[in-house]
Specification:
- By secondary structure, the protein is α/β, with parallel strands linked by helices.
- It folds into 3 domains: about 5-75, Arc Repressor Mutant, subunit A (Orthogonal Bundle), CATH 1.10.10.10; about 80-185 and about 380-405, 2-Layer Sandwich (Nucleotidyltransferase, domain 5); about 195-375, ATPase, nucleotide binding domain (Nucleotidyltransferase, domain 5, 2-Layer Sandwich), CATH 3.30.420.
- The protein is about 40% helix and about 20% strand.
- Helix 8 crosses helix 10 and helix 9 (about 295-300) packs across helix 10 (about 305-330).
C-alpha cells in the first residue's frame, strides 16, 4: 500500500509543480498558478517568496515584489542542460537554457570507414570544450541519445546495443567514455523516444488532455525509429524496446531472418535510393543516377521528377503500411512523421491513402497524422525535457540550482 505524503514531501512536491508549470507556461500570475495547480493562494505566495530568495523568479525583468496581478517568469538564464546524440553518420551536441531554448549547437559528420574509437575521442573533446565554455557547475544534467535496438534496464544497470549497420556502438560504451571524460553521470535514452517526448511537450493537439497518446515515426537514414508517449510518460517496455517498430516485419515474401522485410528496410528514408535503382533505366530523362543520395531524390521529387515521384510515393505507401499497424496496436491520439521525410501535402496524402487500404475509413479519418513542427532535431530537444524531468524527480534540484547560480 502506498503511504500518503507528509508535510515536507507535499511542500517539495508543490515547489516542483510550480517550477514545472512556470517552465512550461512561460509567464503566469500567482492567481493563475493557484487555479492551474489547485493550490491555496497562500501556498503559491510562500513558494514564490522562496523562489525570490533563491533568485530564480522575476517579474518583467524585475524582482518579484508581490504586487497583485504581476506576471511571474523563471530567472534561470544562467542554468543549462546538455543534449548529445550519435548516429551511424554524425554526432551532435547542444546546450539548452531552462526555457528549452537552444543556445549552442555543434554537429560533426563521419563515415563508416572512420575509426570509431577516434570518433568517440573527438566527441569527448567537443563535449568537454562545451562544458568548459558554459561551466560544469552550471550544466545541471546531460543526456545522450542513441539509436536502437537499445536494451536499457536502469534498475539492473543493463545497456545492450544491437544497432543495424552500426555494430561499433556495441563495442565502445559512449556513455561510459563521456562520463569518464566529463567526470559526471550522463543520462541515456533511445533517440526516437526522446523525439516523441519533445513532440508531446509541443503538440497543440493534446494540450490540456489528461489522457492522451502520441507516436513519432522518423527515419534518420537507414533505420526507422518510433517512440510512444502515453499520458506524459515515455513507453519503455520490459527491456526498453517498446516502440521499436522499425524492426517489425511488413513484407512476408522476404528472406526469413533477414532485414529485407522489415518496416525500416521498406520505408526508411534511404530506401528511396534503392527504389530509384529498381527503375532507373525506365526513366532516361530523370536527373537521378545510381549514386544519388536520398536527399537528392527528395529534392528531385519536389521539382517534379517522375522517377523521384514514383520512388517517394512507394516510400509513402510502405510508411502508411507500417503506420496502419501502429494504429491497430496503440491507437494513438496523434501520429507525427519526422523531418527526415518530405514535408509536402502530397507525401502525407499518399501515406493516408496507404493507411486507408488497411484500416476502416472512419479510423483513418479520425487519426491525426502530420509532419513535425519542431525546427531543430527533436531528439536534442527531447533530451532537454527528459533531463529536466529527471532533475525534477531529485530531492536536491533546488540545491543544484542554487549552487549553479552561485558558481
Amino acid at each position: 500500500m502506498r503511504r500518503g505524503m507528509n508535510s515536507m514531501e507535499m511542500q517539495k512536491n508543490n515547489r516542483i509543480l510550480v517550477l514545472k508549470t512556470l517552465q512550461e507556461k512561460g509567464m503566469m500570475t500567482r492567481a493563475e498558478l493557484a487555479v492551474e495547480l489547485n493550490l491555496q493562494k497562500a501556498t503559491i505566495t510562500n513558494i514564490i517568496n522562496e523562489f525570490y530568495e533563491m533568485g530564480i523568479v522575476e517579474v518583467n525583468g524585475e524582482s518579484a515584489a508581490g504586487r497583485r496581478g504581476e506576471k511571474l517568469i523563471l530567472k534561470l538564464d544562467d542554468v543549462f542542460t546538455m543534449s548529445i546524440g550519435i548516429t551511424r553518420k554524425d554526432y551532435q551536441l547542444a546546450i539548452f537554457d531552462f526555457s528549452g531554448n537552444i543556445l549552442k549547437h555543434n554537429r560533426c559528420y563521419f563515415k563508416r570507414e572512420n575509426d570509431f574509437a577516434g570518433v568517440v575521442e573527438n566527441l569527448k573533446a567537443d563535449a568537454l570544450k562545451m562544458v568548459e565554455e558554459y561551466g560544469n557547475d552550471r550544466i545541471l544534467g546531460i543526456c545522450l541519445a542513441v539509436p536502437g535496438l537499445f536494451i536499457n534496464r536502469p534498475e539492473r544497470n543493463e545497456e545492450i546495443f544491437m544497432v543495424s549497420e552500426f555494430e561499433e556502438l556495441s563495442q565502445i560504451s559512449v556513455k561510459a567514455e563521456l562520463e569518464k571524460a566529463l567526470g559526471r553521470k550522463v543520462l541515456i535514452k533511445h533517440d526516437a523516444k526522446l523525439s516523441a517526448f519533445a513532440e508531446w511537450r509541443c503538440a497543440e493537439e493534446i494540450k490540456g488532455e489528461e489522457r492522451a497518446s502520441l507516436v513519432v515515426v522518423r527515419s534518420r537514414g537507414f533505420g526507422i525509429g518510433t517512440g510512444c508517449v502515453v499520458n506524459g510518460n515515455i513507453m519503455n517496455g520490459h527491456l526498453g524496446l517498446a516502440g521499436e517498430a522499425g524492426y517489425m516485419g511488413i513484407n512476408y515474401n522476404q528472406v526469413k531472418g533477414g532485414r529485407e522485410g522489415t518496416f525500416e528496410y521498406c520505408a526508411g528514408s534511404e530506401s528511396v535510393t534503392r527504389y530509384v535503382k529498381e527503375r532507373l533505366f525506365e526513366f532516361p530523362d530523370s536527373v537521378l543516377d545510381e549514386n544519388c543520395t536520398y536527399m537528392e531524390v527528395f529534392d528531385a521529387y519536389r521539382k517534379g521528377d517522375e522517377l523521384a515521384t514514383w520512388a517517394v510515393h512507394k516510400v509513402a505507401w510502405m510508411l502508411g503500411y507500417g503506420i496502419a499497424n501502429i494504429i491497430y496496436l496503440i491507437n494513438p491520439d496523434c501520429i507525427i512523421i519526422g523531418p527526415d521525410y518530405p514535408n509536402t501535402e502530397d507525401f502525407v496524402k499518399k501515406v493516408r491513402e496507404s493507411i486507408r487500404n488497411f484500416v476502416p475509413s472512419f479510423v483513418e479519418e479520425n487519426a491525426s497524422i502530420r509532419y513535425s513542427k519542431i525546427s531543430q532535431d527533436s531528439f536534442l530537444l527531447g533530451g532537454f525535457y527528459y533531463t529536466f524531468e529527471s532533475l525534477c524527480k531529485k530531492d536536491n534540484i533546488f540545491e543544484l540550482i542554487r549552487s549553479a547560480k552561485e558558481a
